[in-house]
């Protein structure tokens, strides 16, 4: 649905916001773009949406060049910006209807009603925007972006500043849009948001895409696991015969911690060998538990690795 080829952006002060970015986003997927502040997330979105001119490279939206055929490309895109930029004294209905008109679309009250109902804004349709909560105002931004029936929706920090309950409700809205065939690209600082929703994840660092991967494959490939074995009797040191397992003492000698890459385990053979070796040296385990690294752990390690 979107193809970015050799995209670079250098501002007048010499700052390189994007450096030779290549990216393909599939039709109907939810794609999460992660990166620290200043990494280039918003600049990349702005260039794709035609709000910022690229220094080099090109962007195709469903085959339409966003410069040479910008009207066709822009009509396919809905953008929900990070900042709340609503008109304070306009009603919800009027501002969403006006956004539809900006794209030359004929009036369609049935579509506007459908959008407002899907975002639980129908009861607020006659309310002025200044009367709404921050979460409701953000929903209005999404309604405006959907008013002209786009095929691609960009969400720049869509749940920033909203409570957990509302955030999860908005996740459901995004999923329903994906089910309707809309391609979703979101940037977020909430790692669990990407882990929960995205089909694929891209990581951007200093204007460069450093990784694009299927979410579950990324967790399998880079996620490490930690097995903690709680001992019946404390140890002063790890026995030499167990040194090959890379064990660490914890909890004042009452526990052994074994770190391993889940993707490289072959039928649990390494863990089986560890347990056999523990039994061989007479160590008895009274309890054990595992912990798998989260997407946040993976993200932090990726960013630090390329710092």
From TrEMBL:
A GO molecular-function annotation: ATP binding
Alphabetized CDD domains for the sequence: ABC_DR_subfamily_A
Nucleotide-binding is among the record's keywords: yes
Residue intervals of the ABC transporter domain: 2-231
Pfam families noted in UniProt: ABC_tran
Segments forming a coiled coil: none
Keywords annotated in UniProt: ATP-binding, Nucleotide-binding, Transport
InterPro entries for the chain: AAA+_ATPase, ABC_transporter-like_ATP-bd, ABC_transporter-like_CS, ABC_transporter_ATP-binding, P-loop_NTPase
Keyword Phosphoprotein recorded: no
Protein name: Putative ABC transporter ATP-binding protein YbhF
Organism of derivation: Halomonas lysinitropha
